[in-house]
Amino acid sequence: MQNPAEAADELDRCMRDLKFQGGMINGQTNGEYLDLDKYSVFWERAAALEAPIYLHPGNPVDHPAVYAGHSELWGPVCSWAFETATHALRLVFGGVFDRYPKARLVLGHMGETLPLSLWRFDSRWGVCNRGSRTLAQMPSFYIKRNIAITTSGVCADAPLRCALDAMGEDNVMFSVDYPFEKTDLAAHFIEQAKVSEKERVKVASENAKRILRLNREIG
To answer: Is 122 one of the annotated active-site residues of the chain?
Structure first.
C-alpha cells in the first residue's frame, strides 16, 4: 500500500491471473489510513473488481497513553480491535463508500465492536464536530451495505446474535482465527449456536459464497 496505484494493479493481477477473490491489508501503512485521497485509485479498482478487502487488525503507529503500563491491552485484547474499528470508521465518515458504492470491506472478530454501536454512530453523527464532512446516508447504512464481518476469534452466542441483528443475516461469515483460536472449538460453536438453521447455513457457507463470489471467473 506504499504505492496505491501499484497496489491497485497488483489486486487486479491477483484476481485476473491468479484467481484470487479479494485482498487483505494489514492496517495502517507508515501511519497512513485508507481513507486518504491518495488511496482513491485503489478503492476505484477494488470497487470495479467487486473485490472484498479484508482489513486485518494491527497496532496503531503510535502508542497512546491509555495503554501505558498495561501491556496486556496492547494487542488482541484491546488495541487491535479499537485500531481496526477506528480505521473502518474513517472509511465510512470519509465518504469512501459514497464515492465507491461497490467497495466492500471485511472485518473479523465479530466486526471489531462496530455492530454494537450502529445506533450511536447515527445519533452522534448529527451533532459531532464533523466540520465540512457530509454523507448521503446515515453511517449505519454504509456499515451494513459495504462492510461484512466474520466470527473469527469470537465463539459466543450473545455477540453472534448481536452481529446478526445489527448487520443482517447476509453480512456475517463464519471464521476460526486459527492459529489464535482452536478449530474444533470454533466448529462446535457454530454447530451449536442458538440461531435458526437458516441463519446457520448463511453464516457457515452461503454468505461467503456470495460475498467472496467463489464461483466467479474474471477474464
So the answer is: no
